[in-house]
């Protein structure tokens, strides 16, 4: 479910639009569970700890937004769409941040083949490692600058 970013309050921004879809705590945790292979509502509820009514609403929203699909039968469960699978990189980044800044001891270790995963961002165009100092922003919305609306 795509939307025009100018319809959101504040700065028109794809991050704000993404948070409208997955910014609720239970949304990303539900996506995590489906990515782990837990497709049934009862599994997702147990493993997220979400209140069942809130989880049902969030799953419905994620299906409407095209992040998950739901089979027609009660036992068909929830599955990731391409949009849901694309959240994997974002969720790994949040997990890495959480390991460093939010928990005393990481409860999960991501592995790649026979070693711990140490991911990095590489520019697909030039192949160089991406460093924050090298990333620029070009504001494409008329009437907005990096400082905000108008001339800043």
TrEMBL record:
SUPFAM superfamilies assigned: Winged helix' DNA-binding domain
HTH hxlR-type domain span: 13-106
Record keyword Secreted present: no
UniProt KW keywords: DNA-binding, Transcription, Transcription regulation
Pfam families: HxlR
One of the record's GO molecular function terms: DNA binding
InterPro entries documented for this protein: HTH_HxlR, WH-like_DNA-bd_sf, WH_DNA-bd_sf
PROSITE patterns hit by this protein: HTH_HXLR
Domain of life: Bacteria
UniProt name for this protein: HxlR family transcriptional regulator
Species for this entry: Actinophytocola oryzae
């Amino acid at each position: 479910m795509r939307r025009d970013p100018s319809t959101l309050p504040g700065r028109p921004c794809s991050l704000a639009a993404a948070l409208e879809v997955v910014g609720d705590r239970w949304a990303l945790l539900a996506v995590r569970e489906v990515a782990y292979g837990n497709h049934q509502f009862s599994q997702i509820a147990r493993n997220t700890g979400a209140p069942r009514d809130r989880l049902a609403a969030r799953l419905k929203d994620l299906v409407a937004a095209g992040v998950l699909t739901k089979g027609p039968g009660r036992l068909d469960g929830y599955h990731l769409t391409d949009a849901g699978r694309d959240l994997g990189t974002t969720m790994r980044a949040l997990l890495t941040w959480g390991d460093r800044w939010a928990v005393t001891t990481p409860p999960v270790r991501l592995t790649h083949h026979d070693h711990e995963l140490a991911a990095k961002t590489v520019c697909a165009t030039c192949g160089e490692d991406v460093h924050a100092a090298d990333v620029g922003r070009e504001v494409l919305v008329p009437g907005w600058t990096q400082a905000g609306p108008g001339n800043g």
